[in-house]
Design brief:
With about 450 residues, this protein is mainly beta. The protein has helices at about 130, 145-160, 185-190, 220-225, 260-270, 340-345, 355-370; strands at about 10-20, 25-30, 35-40, 50-55, 80-90, 95, 100-105, 110-115, 120-125, 140-145, 165, 175, 210-215, 215-220, 230-235, 250, 255-260, 275-280, 285-290, 320-325, 370-380, 390, 410-420, 425-435. It has a 16-stranded mixed sheet that branches. A three-stranded mixed sheet has the order 11-14-13. It has a three-stranded mixed sheet with strand order 19-18-20.
Length: about 450
């Protein structure tokens, strides 16, 4: 085992970084790793690592041996197993081994090279990324019932993952055929069709996210994620080393990446109205109706207190700015039931209700990224993609006594998280998003 620097707040520890080469014995290369980045995202179906190493040309036993290695020593190739164990300065330990093992994605790539050393990096991802493209794991057969149950069946039965599967309860059913699709692709496709099982959701709310975190695979409703309690309460101030009472930690740096983009809000229908038009083969006519994005804003399923108001005085927010069309109604397609007598009574009902789902999920995805914020904090491995964070920032004001900003502070969802470890530091970078404005009180 390689020697490691004791972990402290703001520092981290690479306790194990073991490569299982196809040509050599396993080797722990943690002492040669000069930077390790761990990534999670609500838009990524795998966790990912990037490790950077310095190859100085020395060997153990050399006259000037430094205990590091040359990459030729282990002859790494794509797809090889990697075990990682890391710990932050607060004692939170993450283990990626056995059922949670990683695999190398691509051969090591050199970023700089001279006569004294070569700096190269290695990308890694979950083993399921390899299993996903194995034809023996493709999705075949017919699926009926709730979409959330089908996702669990696909991940467990087709992908054969032993990892935890965290699924938010869903409301709607959907019958479909596997058509030899990959598991990740099909789960992502089903996420756009799923309605959460909460009061008044059908016809107003839709949209799930499929992604992976350290806890396992997540199939989560955007609205249910916003109903969670914030995991941490953080504040930005200029007092060195001081954390005010009631807060869990300090924000070291922050930047607001952007707020509502008018063109995007209009073109996607995220802040306006959308119209659904489709041909009904049973009635031989067109079905048409409109939907107001305001219906997606409940009291407890949003990050902020209010829906943003855009282009006041132009009436654009009350107008139809996006139309969904081109797909026929699917009445009578794959009616549920094993017998004809069970299927016939249900054959006049749509298998998938586009009017109540398609626009809602499209709007919800675009609303989620309306307001974006990036912060850096001391390394904290307890934070996951999809968690909520409560952030407070000082109000920009000429007042002698500063108060927290009511406009930009409050609840945000972690869209992306990167934990960065070096030889003497550990920091966490969070990309945060939310769908509405103004600070809700912390509960």
């Amino acid at each position: 085992m390689s020697a490691n620097t004791p972990a402290q707040a703001g520092e981290g520890q690479i306790k194990e970084l073991i490569f299982y080469s196809n040509y050599n014995d396993p080797i722990d290369v943690s002492s040669a790793c000069i930077e390790l980045n761990y990534y999670e995202s609500i838009l990524d179906d795998s966790v990912r690592f990037n490790a950077t190493f310095a190859d100085t040309g020395y060997r153990k036993g050399d006259e000037n041996g430094s205990g590091v290695f040359e990459k030729d020593d282990i002859n790494m190739t794509s797809g090889e197993q990697v075990d990682i164990k890391i710990e932050d300065g607060f004692g939170t330990e993450l283990k990626f081994k056995e059922n949670n093992q990683l695999r190398i994605n691509g051969d090591p790539s050199a970023s700089s090279e001279d006569v004294n050393k070569v700096v190269f990096s290695v990308d890694m991802y979950s083993k399921e990324c390899i299993d996903n493209v194995n034809a023996s794991n493709y999705v075949y057969g017919r699926y009926d019932g709730k979409i959330t149950d089908s996702v669990t069946d696909i991940l467990r039965g087709c992908l054969k993952t032993p990892k935890n599967i965290i699924v938010d309860p869903g409301f709607n059913t959907y019958s479909f055929l596997g058509h030899s699709e990959k598991s990740f692709y099909l789960c992502t496709l089903l996420a756009k069709k799923c309605v959460p099982d909460i009061k008044n959701a059908f016809g107003n709310l839709a949209g799930y996210l499929f992604y992976e975190t350290y806890e396992g695979f997540q199939f989560r409703s955007i609205d249910m994620l916003f109903m969670q309690q914030p995991k941490k309460k953080l504040i930005y101030n200029q007092l060195i080393g001081e954390i005010p009472p009631g807060y869990d930690g300090k924000i070291l740096t922050y930047s607001f990446v952007g707020s509502v983009n008018l063109d995007n809000a209009i073109q996607t229908g995220a802040m306006t109205r959308a119209r659904q038009q489709r041909f009904n083969s049973r009635t031989k006519g067109y079905d048409e109706n409109s939907y107001d994005s305001e219906s997606t804003y409940f009291e407890d399923n949003n990050g902020g207190k209010e829906r943003p108001v855009i282009a006041k005085g132009t009436k654009i927010q009350e107008s139809v700015t996006r139309q969904f069309s081109g797909r026929s109604a699917d009445d009578g397609i794959l009616p549920p039931g094993l017998k004809l007598s069970e299927q016939i009574p249900k054959s006049r009902k749509p298998n998938f209700n586009m009017n109540e789902i398609v626009r809602q999920s499209t709007m919800r995805y675009n609303q989620l990224f309306s307001h974006k914020l990036s912060i850096a904090i001391p390394g904290d491995f307890s934070l996951r993609a999809g968690d909520l964070i409560y952030c407070d920032f000082p109000e920009v004001s000429g007042k002698t006594s500063r108060v927290v900003s009511q406009k930009v502070g409050g609840i945000y969802m972690i869209a992306d998280v990167c934990h960065r470890l070096t030889k003497n530091s550990c920091y966490t970078r969070l990309n945060l998003v939310r769908d509405s404005i103004y600070r809700k009180p912390f509960k």
